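Re: beginner question about structure tokens

> Can someone show what the tokenized structure looks like for a real chain? I only ever see the sequence side.

Sure, here's an example I had lying around. Input first:
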Amino acid sequence: MIRVALVCDFCHPNLGGIESHLLKLATELRQRDHHVVIITHSYPGFQGKQLWCDGTIVYYAPLPTIARQNTIPLFFTSTRYLKHVLQTENINIVHGHSAFSTLCHEAILVAQQLNIKTVFTDHSLVDIVEWHSYLLNSMLAITLQHADAAISVSNASKENLCVRSLVSPVKIAVIPNAVDTTLFTPTSDVTVRPSTPVIVVVSRLYPRKGIDLLTEALPLILRERPDVTVIIAGDGPLRVDLEEMVEAHR
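And the corresponding structure tokens:
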């Protein structure tokens, strides 16, 4: 049995891809009789140590947050809390998620001080030109310098992570996000013509997902290939932009 701590600022009750990833990973590890702890920051109505119905222990740390639900990088405050949790739960693997998560970086660095094995999963592609990306990638390089392993969710993500963090590709494994096809079936009102191209987009309709590019690209594609069928599954604030694009090009 392994005793693993999954650490990320982005967790339930928040909604998103990383949040869903954490929940599913914790559930699968628990079903294999491993001891699972999730460490995140507190949310309204979610504070302190909580026990989920599947046996997963969640620590909602009393740490202040800034933009995008990230904890403020207060190493002196979080280090003491993280050490307490890791030692109390007798953790032997710390698995941090997302380069955007301050708590992930801090947990991996604290674990290395305690000689605990560390793994990092990268969930996103990050620019390497902008100044704010330079700061993030510099921090990531420090965090992963002595990490035992890293995971990317695609080959493109792996290449991006190698460039950003200067980590050897040998250390990075590619594990694509799993999709349980039994949970998703097409709706009956979607008609696909035989022998014609089909474009399927499954995503939260948020700016950082590149939906603005999709809104610009689809009219160009359909102008050249009007026989293409486009199926979009998702919701979010940019749904309005897509709907306006559809109306404008009917």
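Each token stands for a local structural state, so reading them left to right follows the chain. The first helix runs from residue 17 to 31.
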